[in-house]
Amino acid sequence: MGIELGLSRISTLLSKLGNPQLTSNYIHVAGTNGKGSVCAYLSSILSTSTDFKIGRFTSPHLIYKYDSVTLNNRPVAKDIFYQVENEIISINKRYDIGATEFEILTATAFKIFNLENVDIAVMEVGLGGREDSTNVIIPAEFNKEGKIVKKGVLATGITKIGMDHENILGSTLVEIAYQKAGIIKPNTVNVIDGTNEQDVLSLVSEISGKLGSENHEINPSSKDINTSFGTINLFESPLKGDYQLQNISLALKIVDLITPGLVRTYPSQTHISHQSILKGVQSTSWPGRLQTVQYKDKEILLDGAHNGSAAIELKKYIDSTYNDEPITFILAVTKGKDLAPLLSQLIKPQDNIIVTNFGIVDGMPWIEANSTDDLARECGKYTGNVSINESIEDILNNVKEKNVIVCGSLYLVGEVLRLIKEY
């Protein structure tokens, strides 16, 4: 079963599991680009600033399926993941629930967090937000003293919203934003990237207001980011790209906002300070995004840019790093993506394009790569230097050019990382 939004199946499935999603606190993050980075910052900062067990659920996985679920920033043990997943698949069949693959994956994450006594889980939305299976979580409840008396969502975050998955989420930014803003919960806090279009910001502010949620727009004016605990500079982040300024600022604002409730409720386990936050930022890891790797004797840049908005950011990095030198792009794109916004941003006439494929994605059988012939034809509109090779391993073994960039799909990036790991 492919993508099918809605909360009824996941709710039924979780009820058969004893509602494991009710045993943790959550930070829930939606957006088109940057939400994975925000989740990575959050889980890293919370791990260095508290004695809590921190879970994280992100998708799609990059190398292996179980990478989607982390405990204190390390992937859950493979045997635990598959043991829980198999139990959930069995329950799904026994009760004829008809849950999708992603709903089963989400339920697996919730069950693992429950079994592993996770205190705070950072949840990345899979698609949209309003009807995404991660959105079964409910808001936390606080007493008059500001202590958490019922676990749930402590804060939501919305990153930059762009055009993507229009066939499912809507054909305008506002329609897409309505879906993303569906994660905002009553009487909690929400933080949104303030560089979003004004129509998007207005809609999110309106939705937050109706729910009694405190809405914060972040738009830092410099690379020095002010927090309640002091200033953090963007250069402390190991993640590349100017756009990380927005992502790290959003994560830091969420930490600022949830800290008082954590201190009041769990004083002996909460040690948030400037030093602990700095350590968390410096320790953040988020592979596959402007990541430089070595394959045999070759240096390669990996980036999961797969839509127009992400291509703009990758182009900024290329322009600032490669001084208008020719680039060799190794490209594969998921079937159904609008190619023009991606390719028109990246490809120059002097660039060299090698169009390739990626294999079956574990747990996501509906995902397939665009036809290499179709992709090559589109690339040919921007440069005459286009070739096709279906084997990414063969390409990496034989590419002679410098300035090699693998992009167009996280699934392709994941295959390269898997090859490097196995090499």
From TrEMBL:
Signal sequence bounds: none
Keywords: ATP-binding, Ligase, Magnesium, Metal-binding, Nucleotide-binding, One-carbon metabolism
Keyword presence, Transit peptide: no
Pathway: Cofactor biosynthesis; tetrahydrofolylpolyglutamate biosynthesis
GO terms, molecular function: ATP binding; dihydrofolate synthase activity; metal ion binding; tetrahydrofolylpolyglutamate synthase activity
EC number: 6.3.2.12
DNA-binding keyword on record: no
A single BP term in Gene Ontology: one-carbon metabolic process
PROSITE patterns for the chain: FOLYLPOLYGLU_SYNT_1 (PS01011), FOLYLPOLYGLU_SYNT_2 (PS01012)
UniProt cross-references to InterPro entries, sorted A to Z: Folylpolyglutamate_synth (IPR001645), Folylpolyglutamate_synth_CS (IPR018109), Mur-like_cat_sf (IPR036565), Mur_ligase_C_dom_sf (IPR036615)
Main EC class the enzyme belongs to: ligase
Stretches that traverse the bilayer: none
Recorded family membership: Belongs to the folylpolyglutamate synthase family.
Protein's recorded name: Dihydrofolate synthetase
